[in-house]
Amino acid sequence: MLRRLISKYGRTWPVLTLALGLGAALAALLPSGGLAWVFDREAVAGGELWRIITCHFIHVNGSHLFLDLIVFLVLGSILEVSLRKAYLISLLAGGIAIPLGVFIFLPGLRYYCGLSGLDTAAYTLLAVHLLKTGRQQKKKMSGLIMLTALAGLLFKIAYEIHTGTTLFADPGTSGLIPVPLAHIIGGGIGVISGMLLFLKKSSSLTKCAFT
């Protein structure tokens, strides 16, 4: 059913983004807060590999869910309609690479969850796209705004590394702590996805010019 909906409306409506966002919202209703879906290092090492994907849908409290979901829906909706292929690449790559990065490089971290890593991938993908567009159209102000936005993301990551606390989400009593590595990996995937898209476009333009 989802495949039919994407095929029918995917060019004009962000069907996939809305479906994933709904999944994250409904996951908040799971028994025990979705412990069977969260990234749990010991469980993943024991063979529960589905947690690598499902962990993105789980959030530790309402503030965490609300902020992650709003960013995901807004950015994802824009990208799914305007940069569908690059967006899908960033979702797939980020969905796998972020938890694997946590597993490999943060051996002391047992649990991980949330959409923030994928949010960061979408954020940087859109920024790369707007930077490239602004450069092509010779709009310096557009490029400056996007560079400022990227600088803001770097500041957020640096703040979380330095303080060990979240900049926006309220930790409440849940013990929510940021995982800057997830945002670094997500941001890198967004940049790479955007650059691959534009390299492909440039290659096509060059081929057309010499035929």
Short recap of the structure:
With 211 residues, this protein is an all-alpha fold. It has helices at 2-9, 15-27, 41-45, 51-54, 62-82, 84-105, 116-136, 140-163, 180-209, and strands spanning 39-40, 111-112.
What proportion strand? under 5%
Total domain count: 1
CATH H-level name... which superfamily? Rhomboid-like
Report mean pLDDT, rounded to a whole number. Answer: 86
Which residues sit in consecutive blocks of at least 5 with pLDDT less than 50?
A: 203-211
Classification by helices and strands: mainly alpha
Which properties best describe this structure?
211 residues; mainly alpha; Rhomboid-like fold; two-stranded antiparallel ribbon; 9 helices; disordered C terminus
Describe this structure in words.
It contains nine helices and two strands. The model is unreliable at 203-211 (pLDDT under 50). Helix 2 runs antiparallel to helix 5 and helix 5 (62-82) packs parallel to helix 7. The chain has a two-stranded antiparallel sheet with strand order 1-2. It is an all-alpha fold. It is globular, with a radius of gyration of 18 Å. The chain has one domain: Rhomboid-like fold (Up-down Bundle).
